[in-house]
Structures are given as C-alpha cells and as structure tokens.
Amino acid sequence: MSLVDRLTTDMKQAMKAREKARLSVIRMIKTSLQNESIKLGKPLSEDEALAVLTRELKQRKDSLQEFKNAERQDLVDEVAVEIAIVQSYMPEQLSEQEVEALIDETISEVGAVSKADIGKVMKAVMPKAKGRADGSMINKIVREKLN
C-alpha cells in the first residue's frame, strides 16, 4: 500500500472516530504531498514522498524547540502530538549502533581520514540512511569519528 493510499484510509478512520488532531495532521501531510507532486509535475515516487515527510517532521521538531524556548507548554503539547503522528508514517528508524556501523562502512568506502573529509562522508551516508535516521545525529557521529 502506497503512502497516499495509507493516508487516505487513515483519514477516513480519523473522520469516523472524530480524532481532530490526527485528521488535521493527515490533511497537512496529504496537502504537502500534493503540492510537491504539482511542483514536480508528476506523481511522487516513494523516495520523494519520504523526503516530504522528513521535511514535515523537521518543521515540527523546529517548532517544538521554539515553543519550548518561549515556554509555551500548550503549543509544545500540540506539536508533540503532531510529531508522533508524522513519525507513524516514517520508516522504522535506525538505532544509534546501526547508524555508527553505516558510518564506519561509509568512511572506509570513501577513504576518509580527517575532518576535511566530513562533507564526502555525509554526501555518501545520507542517501543510505534517507528517512531512517536524523541528519544531525549522523553529522555528530561523523564528526566524532573523524576527529
């Protein structure tokens, strides 16, 4: 089942169950997917849809941090629920050990030895971990390993 089909099915269930928050988030995701499809002028592939989901998740995490800094607990709670809903549509996330193994493998593939090679390693590892690991965590681990 494609992501769009799954979203449509879940949207119907959320309507029937009167789950306003879930329905709202699903509609936002579907709208983002449709806008991206229109922008590209073709139906989205699974990778392109995953990129849109990742972008939506990142926006919400950034908002969460801003709301925490502003001490707006009401908005923090609301965005935390949205994050959980968006994450339910993401592929299973890699553990930190799996990410480290992936980075070690990539470092040996590209022959990285110093901090100057961070860009090379990041460019090679990001497509492998696409949507399954947080970019900031990957960057932190790569920096530690190349120090």
UniProtKB/TrEMBL annotation:
SUPFAM superfamilies: GatB/YqeY motif. Coiled coil: none annotated. It holds the Pfam family YqeY. It comes from the Bacteria. InterPro entries: Asn/Gln_tRNA_amidoTrase-B-like, GatB_Yqey_C_2, YqeY/Aim41, YqeY/Aim41_N. Gene3D superfamilies: 1.10.10.410, Uncharacterised protein YqeY/AIM41 PF09424, N-terminal domain. This is GatB/YqeY domain-containing protein. It comes from Sporolactobacillus kofuensis.
